[in-house]
Amino acid sequence: MTTELLTVHYGQTGQSTAQNPMGMREMQARAYAARNAQYLLLKAPPASGKSRALMFLALDKVMNQGLHKAIVAVPEISIGGSFANTNLSAFGFFADWHVDAGYNLCTLGNEWKINKLIEFLDDPEARFLLCTHSTLRNAYERLGDARKFDNMLIAIDEFHHTSAEEGNKLGAMVDGLIRNSSAHIVAMTGSYFRGDQVPILPPEAEALFTQVTYTYYEQLNGYKHLKSLGLGYHFYQGRYFEAMKEVLDLNKKTIVHIPNVNSAESTGQKYSEVDYVLDAIGEVKDKDPKTGIMTLKTRDGKLLKVADLVTDDPMRVNVLSFLRDIRQRDEMDIIIALGMAKEGFDWPWCEHVLTIGYRSSLTEVVQIIGRATRDCEGKSHAQFTNLIAQPDAEDEDVKNSVNNMLKAITLSLLMREVLAPNITFRPRSLLREGETLQPGDIVIDDSEAPISPRVHEILNSGGIEQIVTTLLNTPEAVNPVIAAPDEHKILTEAAMPRIITQLFPDLPPEDVSMLNDLAQTQMVITANGGLVTELPPGAEVIPGDTTTDRDDGPSNSAGALAFLRVGEKFINVSSLNIDLIESVNPFQGAYEILSKSVTAPMLKTIQDQVTAQRSSVSEEEAVLLWPRIKDFKRQFGVEPSLNATDAYERRLAEVLAYVRNKKAQQIQAAQAAKTE
């Protein structure tokens, strides 16, 4: 049985896909309004139209702002199709997009591409080039002089591949261009966040960028056809091949991502796993010798078109070429992938992304979900399903998948933040007289201590979302709160301020404290229901804030159905006191999510695993106390409990969790060694 972590329904306003007189969607127009910025950072979700937004920006930079050339860099060649020649003038723009002949470098080959890019720099007739990140950074290194890119636009798609960490070549190139050239930079990403928590840009560089943010909720709520998005998980035991048959709906356009060969879920034989997936679909009847696309016959006689992006042979280029040129719904049914068909991959008819095994990077998960969230006629629901191994709570050796369970919980919490209506914090000191608040606006009373310009800048550039996202992908911060809800002050007093300081090291302590309070407020509001337009029966409405009518928060009489009016919408403030935010655990929803299908023994296993991660137990102490753990179980017939009132029994339980965790790590290491 597949359990939904979350199902979000959207308003189908059509706003995000409607075009203005220049042929621009809402997000694209927002980006174009900032076109004169030398450094522009565009943060917008998959399917919002970032590629076309960049076309508008590049054409204006070259044709109206006096730049000589534009270089567009994408992570991999399969994404290059998003920047194919496009007729923009037919929809009202002043020019059409095209890559100059001979300068589309998103093709096979390597060395010649670097030479071609260097040739492009000196070609007086050429203006637009398309290449991969690798080609651009290698050409930059070979030239050794950032001034070669003076008066040019360098546009970097999927900018989260960049990092401020030493050794990141793309990050070093961006830094060099900023410091030593007059180049303009447009950076685009669907997730301004890295799974390794390393900042994408150092604070002093990020401060130079004009930032344009378009939220996931704005995008999905403004679609015309897509009504809802579901996020679910499905547990399996043994190998995933049989369980996949239960969740693979052959009537839906689907991308299947098989697990990484080094993961616990994988057999280590990726080509064999492709065969297993094909067997789950049906019988291979034909394989086109030109395109590489297979035709399979299902058990009920239906014929399906299937693409294999896992098998790394010369035919894969033909498969990719076919997928880039798809124009009709019936041309493809199922795509099997491993590392491809994630970020930037455009197949608008995709309804279901079935991901086997956990993904440690939430950036990757958001990108995968984005493959199914294109708005498309005939598609009313998009679904992300994670097929994951079920931990065996009775097994003495704690399975590695318990760690992954924690990632799934974290993912669900992240999605609640990303997919909920946007919350905007507005300092009272900056509100105009008589200004009407918009839905989602929350006023910060800074009458006694106005917020600093730097905090205001962070709020305007999506900084709160960045803080929350980073926190939710930091297991050492989240796990203790999930394991012990009463210990949530670990998060509010230690983990969150530390993350804010890492992301924004230039902030003084008072600004860190301000952002800490606001990030917690947003998390708790989301956990308590977010923003709603219709109130349930019996709801008590607490007057909202305006520029002339101050609200000091929920009254003491507010009951379980108390709502705070914010603009034309409402915030559920049940058991929420915004002035005492640290008294509320923002992760209280974790157990509700787990309880849908996870048993009490499994919860105990997870709690044991978290305890082991937090514990100060040393190997020497574990060796010393192991015999006493055996004696305890022999004497009392049960294992020592982490919830015991006796401190000695609790310590024995911590040692037991430590030993099991170490054993699980040894098993994982042995499995990894077998696959090498």
Summarize this structure briefly.
With 676 residues, this protein is an alpha/beta fold. It folds into 4 domains: 18-215, P-loop containing nucleotide triphosphate hydrolases (Rossmann fold, 3-Layer(aba) Sandwich), CATH 3.40.50; 222-390, P-loop containing nucleotide triphosphate hydrolases (Rossmann fold); 416-593, no CATH class; 615-675, no CATH class. The chain has 21 helices and 21 strands.
Question: Which key phrases capture this entry?
Answer:
alpha/beta, Rossmann fold, 37% helix, globular, six-stranded parallel beta sheet, 676 residues, nine-stranded mixed beta sheet, single chain
Structure description:
The chain has 676 residues and is α/β, with parallel strands linked by helices. It has four domains: 18-215, Rossmann fold (3-Layer(aba) Sandwich); 222-390, Rossmann fold (3-Layer(aba) Sandwich), CATH 3.40.50.300; 416-593, no CATH class; 615-675, no CATH class. The protein has 21 helices and 21 strands. The strands form four sheets. A nine-stranded mixed β-sheet has the order 1-8-15-14-9-13-12-11-10, with helices on both faces. Strands 4-3-5-6-2-7 form a six-stranded parallel β-sheet, sandwiched between helices. The protein has a four-stranded mixed β-sheet with strand order 18-21-20-19, with no helix packed on it. The longest helix has 29 residues, at 647-675. It is globular, with a radius of gyration of 26 Å. It starts with a strand and ends with a helix. 45% of the residues are buried. Mean pLDDT is 78; it is low at 542-562 and 571-581.
